[in-house]
Amino acid sequence: MISRRLIIFTRFPEPYKAKTRLIPALGAEGAARLHRELTCHTLACVRELARNFPVATAVRFEGGTSERMAAIFGNSFPYRRQGEGDLGRRLDRAFAEAFSGGAQRVIIVGIDCPEMTPQLVREAFDSLAEHDIVLRPAADGGYYSIGLRFQVSQLFTEISWGTEAVLTETLREARQLSLKVYQLKTLSDVDRPEDLAIWYRVRASSQTNATPPISVIVPTLNESADLPIYWQA
């Protein structure tokens, strides 16, 4: 059994429900498309991590169905609804089920920080060897990743979710519980129109570093005028 669990929190990319704060800049369809792109980017990061780092991964989502999620994002991961309640209750539930299933280190990440890399996720897991809670703060005052090595439900109560006080209040609760806390590098998330430049920069960098297409010519007898070209990314 793999002792490390990585859980991705996202939602089905439905117009008017995904990335709603970006609708004024992108429109409802564009905001949903961006949410889909960010989710794909995060899942690609996780697939790369899993190539040489044993970790069990699952996707917890809102909206849609497991079948519709798999149709868009593939069948590499199990999909499960986040369930009812505010973000705190949903986070607590995901941690509880992971630990009850035998996990010893559990990390939950959102899809809003495109600067996340496999190395950063691995760093978070490694940090849990000596700390009870590992946080990756977001520049907006929240956090986009939280890791635990045992269940701590109190961390998710009395928190002003969706505000700039999320990280501060979480750290306050951790201190009151005498938890060993480690904060990793702060990154920016993509929630507002002014954040779009972050995603455009990361996306451009990913495309630049991608393996260039290779053209393969398959010769056929006396068919020089119709030689097909096959492209492999």
Describe the structure.
It is a single chain. This protein is an alpha/beta fold. The chain contains six helices and nine strands; from the N terminus they run E-H-E-H-E-H-E-H-E-E-H-E-H-E-E. The chain has helices spanning 23-50, 66-73, 87-100, 118-127, 166-176, 196-209, and strands spanning 4-11, 56-62, 79-81, 105-109, 133-137, 143-148, 181-183, 214-217, 229-232. Strands 3-2-1-4-6-5-7 form a seven-stranded mixed sheet, with helices on both faces. Helix 1 (23-50) crosses helix 4. The longest helix has 28 residues, at 23-50.
SSE run: EHEHEHEHEEHEHEE
Characterize the biggest β-sheet.
7 strands, mixed
In terms of structural class, how would the helical and strand content be classed?
alpha/beta
Quaternary state of the chains: single chain
Distance between the termini: 34 Å
- Strand percentage: 15-25%
Strand order of the largest sheet: 3-2-1-4-6-5-7
Unreliable sequence segments: 210-233
Backbone CA Rg:
20 Å
What's the total count of β strands?
A: 9
Please work out how many helical segments DSSP would assign. Answer: 6
Mean of all residue-level pLDDT scores: 89
Bin the helical content: 25-40%
Rough outline: globular
